[in-house]
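Task card 7
Instruction: Convert sequence to structure tokens.
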Amino acid sequence: MPHAIRLHATGGPEVLRYEQVEVGEPGPGQARVRHSHIAVNFIDIYIRSGRYPLPLPNGLGSDAVGVVEAVGPGVTEVRPGDRVGYLLGPQGAYADVRLMPAEVLIPLPDGVADSTASTLMMKGMTAQYLFRQVYPLHGGETILYHAAAGGVGLIACQWARALGVTLIGTVSTEAKAEVARANGCAHTIVTGGMTPADMAREIPRRVREITGGQGVPVVYDSVGADTLMASLDSLQVRGTLVSNGTTSGPVQIDTTLLAVKGSIWLTRPAMIHYATPRSHMLAMADELFGHVLAGRIRSEPSQSFPLAEAAQAHRALESRQTTGATVLLP
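Output:
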């Protein structure tokens, strides 16, 4: 019998239950996918803790890679034996095998291993839509990117280097700073031990120092509440704050502050609005995989856990013990 991680209640990592599940034959428009690697993302923690509520009981996990075992009537997007990945669709990726809507499955090109692809479905596609759609970068810009040594961050560092963009990255430790620089981060700001007030003072000071007093045109901020003021004060007049995560808590802002800080543009993007319809998703994947096949982006899991130990993976991610991407192995 296959197994999956199931949620019957929200709370700490201990609520993750490893259970036997039944997986039937695919129905119309469905494919059955047997996973080889399952990505762990911070959004999974938001869902597990109840910050992003779901009907319970439910599965957990948004992206994985594997092989198509069978397809249902009317499916033309994939065939049995195809290697695929996905980042959209219902929760439930923390599983050995599952049924998925075929329309969200992305064929994996030859030359991109499952282990590599598992770090790219959500994280690599996030870098794509942040850098190429939300605030399109063309080369020559200097930007501020928070959490530059995280799963998305390391891909973002490499993508910035490929575009000719100077990326200033914040990291929590000097060890993570070294990893970020090795992946293309031009300048690092180590924030470990800083309070939000410290960051509000020190990060803009360093950014202004690096940019000759100008500030940056865009900040990509996945940290949220703790870095809000630092992000705003690092921007140029009419700059853009891309609030793409809330690991330290949600952002709450009086819009008057956006005017005071320089008529700042603020956006809170969601993947679903950039990766649909299917043609958009496939175009995003083509650009991402093109960089991988050309050697401009390299990505492998930095740490892995058995599927049954998903709770330990969550503890490691929440405590900032991880660098880069974390995966579960069925």
